[in-house]
Amino acid sequence: MNEKERVQSLLKENGLVAKKSFGQNFLINDGIIRRIVKGMEVEKYPCVIEIGPGLGSLTLPLSKVSKRLIAVDADRDMAAVLKDLFQEESNVTVINSDFLRFNPDEYVKEEERIFVGNLPYNITSELLEYLIEKGFASAGVMVQKEVAEKLIYEEGKKENCPLGAFLATQGKVEILTYVDSSCFLPAPKVDSAFLKITKERKIDFHLYPIYKALFKDPNKNISNCLKQSKYKERAIEILKEKNPDVLTMRARQLPVKTLLSISQLILENDA
Description:
The protein is of the alpha/beta class. The protein is built from eleven helices and nine strands. It has helices spanning about 5-15, 30-40, 60-65, 75-85, 125-135, 145-150, 160-170, 210-215, 220-225, 230-240, 255-270; strands at about 25, 45-50, 70-75, 90-95, 115-120, 140-145, 170-180, 185, 190-200.
C-alpha cells in the first residue's frame, strides 16, 4: 500500500475529511517523504518535535529513525487517529494542542531538539517566529514555494525579508526539496518547498524586532526605516557614530554580518 492509499483508507475508516480550518493537505508522495526524512538526519538528535503530523505521513518514517518523537496536532480527530496508530510505540508521544500554545521546553532542551512540520500556510510566519523564539538545533518545514525562496537570504536580493535575514544570521538555510501540489491530498492551489534550517550559532531573539524595523519598507533606506520605528533618532545617532555608511543603504543590500552588528549596536543602546 502506498502513502496515498494509506491516507485515503484512514480517512474513510475514520469518517474524516481534510479540514480547511486547520490548513490540512496530507503529503502522499512516497519519494518526497523519503527525501525529507533522509535529509533531516533526525537520528543525530535526541528528540524530534513534529508540527501538524496529520495522519502520520512523516510521523511513521520518522518514528523508525528517531530516538524520541513528539507529534503535536491541533486537530483532536487527527490526534486520536495518531494515538491509535502509535499506541505500541514507546518512543512516540502524541499531543493534541495548538502548536503556538505548546511549550517544547517542558519536554526537551533547546539544543537537543529538532522541529519538523508541514506548516499551515496561513500562519507560516507566525509559526516560524515562534520556533525561532523557542530555539532549536535544526528545523525542517514545508512552506509555500514562494515563501521558501523569499526566506533564502542573498545579499542584495529584492525579495529579502527580516525573517530570512534573521534565519541566515543563525545558520544555514536551504531548500531540501521542491514539492509539487500533486504530492498532497487534497492538492493545494500552490506548489511548496521543504526548507531546512541548521542552527550554527545562538542569536538573541530580542534582536529580531530590530531586524523588522530595518526592513520596515524595502524601498526606503535604513535611516528612513528607523525613523518609522520605536528606535527613531537614538538608533540613527548610534549608527552615525559607529557605522554611518549603512544609513543610506537598504537593509536587503547588507551582508548578514553587518545586519547583526548594527542590530546589536541598536539593542545595546536602546534605553
